[in-house]
Design goal:
Elements lengths: L1 H13 L17 H29 L3 H9 L8 H4 L2 H11 L8 H11 L23 H4 L3 H8 L8 E3 L9 E8 L5 H9 L5 E3 L2 E11 L3 H18 L2 E7 L5 H15 L3 E8 L2 E3 L1 H8 L9 E3 L1 E2 L27 E2 L3 E5 H11 L8 H12 L4 E2 L3 E2 L15 H5 L3 E3 L3 H11 L13
Parallel strand pairs: 2-4, 2-6, 4-5, 8-12, 13-14
Antiparallel strand pairs: 1-5, 3-4, 6-11, 7-14, 8-11, 9-10
Helix pairs in contact: 1-2, 2-5, 9-16, 11-13, 11-14, 13-14
Bound molecules: 2-acetamido-2-deoxy-beta-D-glucopyranose (5 copies).
The site of one 2-acetamido-2-deoxy-beta-D-glucopyranose has 3 residues, from loops.
GO biological process, one term: poly-N-acetyllactosamine biosynthetic process
Pathway: Protein modification; protein glycosylation
InterPro entries: Glyco_trans_31 (IPR002659)
Length: 439
Amino acid sequence: MNIMSVEWRQEEDGEEEGRAPRTDRGQPRPAPSMFQWRKTIYKTVCLSFLLVVTVTVLQRGMAPSQFMQGQQQKELPPPEPLKTQKRGDTFSDTSTFWKSKNEKAPTKEEEEEGVTEKQAKSWDITTANCSANQNLSKVEWFKGLEPNFQQFLLYRHCRYFPMLINHPEKCSEDIYLLIVVKSIITQHDRREAIRRTWGQEKEVEGKRIRTLFLLGTASKEEERDNYQKLLDYENRIYGDILQWDFLDSFFNLTLKEVHFLKWLNIYCDNVRFVFKGDDDVFVSPSNILEFLEDKTEGEDLFVGDVLYKARPIRKKENKYYIPSALYNKSNYPPYAGGGGFIMAGPLAKKLHKTSETLELYPIDDVFLGMCLEVLKVLPVGHEGFKTFGIVKNKNSKMNKEPCFFRGMLVVHKLLPPDLLQMWDLVHSNLTCSRKLNVL
Ligand SMILES: *[C@@H]1O[C@H](CO)[C@@H](O)[C@H](O)[C@H]1NC(C)=O
Ligand SMILES: *[C@@H]1O[C@H](CO)[C@@H](O)[C@H](O)[C@H]1NC(C)=O
Ligand SMILES: *[C@@H]1O[C@H](CO)[C@@H](O)[C@H](O)[C@H]1NC(C)=O
Ligand SMILES: *[C@@H]1O[C@H](CO)[C@@H](O)[C@H](O)[C@H]1NC(C)=O
Ligand SMILES: *[C@@H]1O[C@H](CO)[C@@H](O)[C@H](O)[C@H]1NC(C)=O
């Protein structure tokens, strides 16, 4: 909470000058009690301001992007309306919303209640009480491991964590394609770009497309409270966030995988296909729909950028380094790059069951490959998935060529400005000299 008040104070000092009544310019620093009191006033003013913004957004049905622009350009309505509102209500509302995550926001509960009538099943993990595995401290090879692997192994047995943000209603209808995107709390701009491009929820010829972002908690503790409040707010606007109470670290990506599979198994009975990918890729939903057209029901479809005989990386400097104490075979089973792949909904449910029989592996896409191996399902490689980069040469024109992107299903890696630009180019009247035919 401290960080929060300090930050807001700074914000007020900077941007909101002139709007909130200020009397203390140039005055000497007040005594602690006075300071405390002032902090409360600041907080109250800020909270009221935020509430007004929320109410305005909801009432006007403004697009959030408009709202964001408005905020930047300082075109928001002044906080006057507050006076006409019942003060009591205002404060109880704001304080409930901005309270710590332990106390659920009221709408979340309402949403869940509405659905539990129809759906008996729900996320059944309510406490995250999982302590480090003390057995390992006695093991010799464990002591020689790098700290991140030690950390991974100490908590490897902690399978599931409670949900902080849930959307049980998301899957209550028949969904043709569920798009799920691995994201982290700080990458708000990536989520925004995805919502405006390939993550748009829509219906194409009766096929429903829905999008969800999968998140853990902020990995830096000092950032957690601040970002959590922003995320809660983002979720209020878009309603497309699933969040679990585990640290969003690289080695916890497999946790994200198994949490999503469990979630899908509980809440999604009628999802035909799942696209799962990173938040820094280009995706063409129309090409995906075209690709899926001739797929039959009951097929164990798992398709992506598949590596058939990848070797575990033994160079310590590499991001994907794996000590042989963790994996001692010379090859991984076939697996699809986690940047973006498609699986049939029913197969995802089988994967959930299988995943519970295996020990977690720190690399999420390899872990899924291990599950597929147990299920004896071979992932299928497809030309239209370029999740390991398009061409080796980073400066190659191919990386910027819209005609190339137009023919693809997934391309790694595009950050928000490039993604927005490429999306517009691909959807403009392109004249391409030859049609890339991968579908
Ligand atoms: C968490 O687990 C520890 C040891 O397993 C136990 O002592 C403690 O009471 C538990 N705390 C809660 C809140 O369940
Ligand atoms: C630690 O060892 C004990 C005894 O072998 C075992 O019962 C327990 O499950 C182990 N703990 C973990 C977290 O693996
Ligand atoms: C994964 O998340 C859990 C729960 O927050 C945490 O205890 C653990 O250290 C994390 N693991 C890694 C490898 O970051
Ligand atoms: C590989 O690891 C497995 C289990 O971790 C172990 O049983 C086996 O002996 C190891 N093989 C080699 C060649 O080290
Ligand atoms: C793109 O082409 C279509 C028909 O081919 C045309 O109707 C449309 O106006 C064109 N749009 C632009 C921006 O040129």
